[in-house]
# Entry
Amino acid sequence: MALLPMLWSQDRICDPLVCSTYDPRRLRGVNVYRETTREFATGDRIQFTAPDRNFGVANRDLGTVTSLEDGKIAVRLEGKEGRAVTFDPNEYRQFDHGYAVTSHSSQGLTAGRVIVNIDTDSVRSLINTRLAYVSISRASDDARVYTNNAETLGERLATDITKTAAVDFRPPSPTEQAREAVQAFRANEPGKATDILQEQGRVYEYANPDSRLAAVAIDYAARPDRTVIVAPDAADRQELTQLIRADLQAQGRIGEESHSVPVLVEQNYTNKKLAVNYQIGDEIHYKTGSPTAEGIPNNSAATVLSVDGNKNLLTVETREGEQVSYNPAQLRRQTAESTVYREESRELAEGDRISFTTADRENRVRSGDFATVERIGEDNSISARLDSGRAAELDPEKARHIDYGYTVESAQHLSADRLILTGESSQLAGQQEALTRLNPHTREVGIYTSNGSNPLQQAQGIATDVQLAEEGFSIDSGSSNMPEPTLPEIDLEGFGLYTAQPPGAQCDDYH
# Structure
């Protein structure tokens, strides 16, 4: 028999002797352990509590100790054709005795004989038809149930938590409530829409903008499918993209290998007639050119070679290799109908969400459509799967007209099941017109905002501090004055259960 140190999963992040303070919303993939000891001997049954690719075990795999020699443990795994693994318990310590397991971790397992312990006094969410099916169905030969109350056992196990009975006077579902809010936005009634969202608990206010962005990233990463964030502020969009990509990579939804892909970012100049607004290397796309006067064809593109601010002249090189100098203020129609792009790079990996910044007739893609990256070639060509289900093959040139698809600037004409709006209240006020064009099929809407110097009035969509106080919300200039969101719990294989915490929680309060 050997007395071995092992790591036992804990629900606190603070060691009794050392406590570091940090914002858990900005870290993902966190798993917390405390070292304890277990006695193991040959013949003991063990369960692995974290995956390890080196010797090929998955989280919750079961096995039997076959030897304890030379400081290493040899285990024969159950199933998988009885494969044997050997490991050093000083290097891999995520394992425990495997005689009793939860019904959740037993899913996918099969045993000849199963003993189930059921306490009928446990909460409804634990004792139900799901527990009965998962637990009993693990047995191939014999299953026995031990309980504290055999009379009520049958009634408790018959509890169905997968559905509720339909009644004529049932309250509206969250999806129906969300669609009521969407219809109110489309009817230019943002105050009514926000009231509906507040009743659902989907309006959140954070005094600290960093905490707001972290909460939005957690919300997105918990359910990323067909979710889009509307963030009017460009810096917010950039920060959210970084946070979300880090979260999704920790979950394994985004590949570890990234490619630096050049993309064209549209430049929204306030005055395209001034040459000094342009930079060398900018790419100008002309809808209407000047083929006769300057030799710039219609529906063509050119690259800026030089800028003369004194003479207000641009010198460009067309795709045909011709160099042309012209005054953008004089060619008014050509300049007005042109689009200016600047090349930037994006780190993309398989699984990344992208949006198309221009239409692509060949792939039947509209500007603003969303897709998921499936493959990136060495030449930066991209294979993507549109949200509609169709595949899109982008050569390196077409792949330049994409960007990250996690956040957008405006809610107008978005095609998404779930919409998250975030920003200062004054920034969200600017979305009022765009929200009247919100997709009527949106199934869920949430609003995250910070205390701003110019909070919106209730009629504009967000309640003022005075109105919130009248409705019973406490007002604290240093903390949130709206209900905190029910932040998601994310169970990642190998990382344990991670629950985000509200702003201001103390170190010993994190779980």
